[in-house]
Amino acid sequence: MAKSTAMFGPVPGIRPGHEFASRLELWGAGVHRQTQAGISARQGEGAESIVLSGGYEDDEDLGDTILYTGRGGRSAESQQQIADQTLTGANAELARNVLLGLPVRVTRKVTEGSRSFYRYAGLYRIVRYWAESGRSGHRVWRFQLEALPELAESSAAGPATSQPTPLGLVQAPAAGYGPAPRRAASVLRLVRDTAVTRQVKTLYDYHCQVCQTRLSSPAGPYAEAAHVQPLGAPHHGPDVLANVLCLCPNHHVLFDYGSFAVADSGELLGLPGRLLVAPRHPIGPEFLAYHRTRFYEPQL
Amino acid sequence: MAKSTAMFGPVPGIRPGHEFASRLELWGAGVHRQTQAGISARQGEGAESIVLSGGYEDDEDLGDTILYTGRGGRSAESQQQIADQTLTGANAELARNVLLGLPVRVTRKVTEGSRSFYRYAGLYRIVRYWAESGRSGHRVWRFQLEALPELAESSAAGPATSQPTPLGLVQAPAAGYGPAPRRAASVLRLVRDTAVTRQVKTLYDYHCQVCQTRLSSPAGPYAEAAHVQPLGAPHHGPDVLANVLCLCPNHHVLFDYGSFAVADSGELLGLPGRLLVAPRHPIGPEFLAYHRTRFYEPQL
């Protein structure tokens, strides 16, 4: 990983759809500041850009959604996955984007007949990461990227206060920080509200199942419902009581980001103590196992 | 407030732009289940719909953004604000929508020449609430509404798993809960990431300034930066170090929702103790005062 300061966000003058003849041209434009590696990241700062070149057998490019496979464990000769990946190096930096809400520039390698070139796809948000067993049987880290709506150049160079767009995204002002203008997207913590999530909050009267905290505000108590196996693609967890926990925001963050997990016995892994479980709340062991194997990473 | 179960979300068959000749017709369609009141809310459940009829001198209708004034304190004769509003009754229910992420149906009264009718505007998310001194000098509660993108009817009736849209919003499945299908939007906790918010996290090494908690995950430490005077319209707080705090998610929620505030001395109001303040972090008393007067509501 390079030592210079990371540059996040759009590169002035480069719009989605812009084509580059080669990796060197892409590098020269500042879109992807690595000439060979697929991930351009700065240690401790996050990942600023990736290039999708079809090299990883587990990548899935669905357009606005990309399931991106982390780095490492591949054979240099066969390009096959021959060992487990770890959440270190560039993979840890991709995960850091999730925590910090940093956008990543995405470029695709395009092959048309005998001609290959690179097309800038725009900014994506990395919404989640997890580990799973790849096609090879080895453990790979997966990163779910979602396309961010394009921000107009005029607003990107805009006034000193942030401009929320109708999408609730914020174009941060280019502040005096580092050598290059850096702009950032927002962290959108998506906390789903459904009948089931309301049910679990009521069941625990808004107490956290980990720490028993109950946050109280002038508009009433506040808790968050955490889906154990996440809703929506690609996890497709069900929206049922057996798949949700009632947590305070702190433990929700820690659960989603894999700081702790729950054993089938209710014992916490990564934290001392046990989960508080109401008699009328039969939590599905299959969901707990899904979370443990994909999201939980014991810390050294 | 009526006693029946609240019905949130879209009314089948009614798309934005649908026109109704009268309040009675609006009531009959199930869009606004009150024949006179501007807010239709159910005690303890939240507000399901509002009608903007131009009755409140402090309302501001900007299209996709609406600054809506709470109920109460008006003279029945003059319609002028003659007393302070309180965060009770329907106003408390509007605030509950913020906490629970519940969408609200919005209908506008339209007057064209001598003809008046009602036009359904669609679903809005209530993103924030605060108190301020209205034009009359009396205290009013203000609710900031943002238009939600329309969800296609087909996906609204869709499969049993939630479908994230490109906007990160989720169409929750219509679960068996209450007599009518109820669909809900997501709570999007917007946590802004800018150079300044990264700076404040570094300054405190990700420790919460209220409780000194430092959340740790496999991808690194996690904290949130809270703008004291919020960024963006209508508050226009600046994105400067003097206007941000480093908080854990729990205290961020409590701060935004007015459970506590900070005195100029650094003493906490609504919570015991004092704010931890680093020597290189001169917090602006004008921002603390802005937050105290608008967001803080001492709990009984």
TrEMBL record, chains A, B:
GO terms for biological process: negative regulation of gene expression via chromosomal CpG island methylation; protein ubiquitination. SUPFAM superfamilies: PUA domain-like (SSF88697). Gene3D superfamilies: SRA-YDG (2.30.280.10). GO terms for molecular function: endonuclease activity; ubiquitin protein ligase activity. Keywords: Endonuclease, Hydrolase, Nuclease. Residues 9-147 form the YDG domain. This is HNH endonuclease. It comes from Hymenobacter polaris.
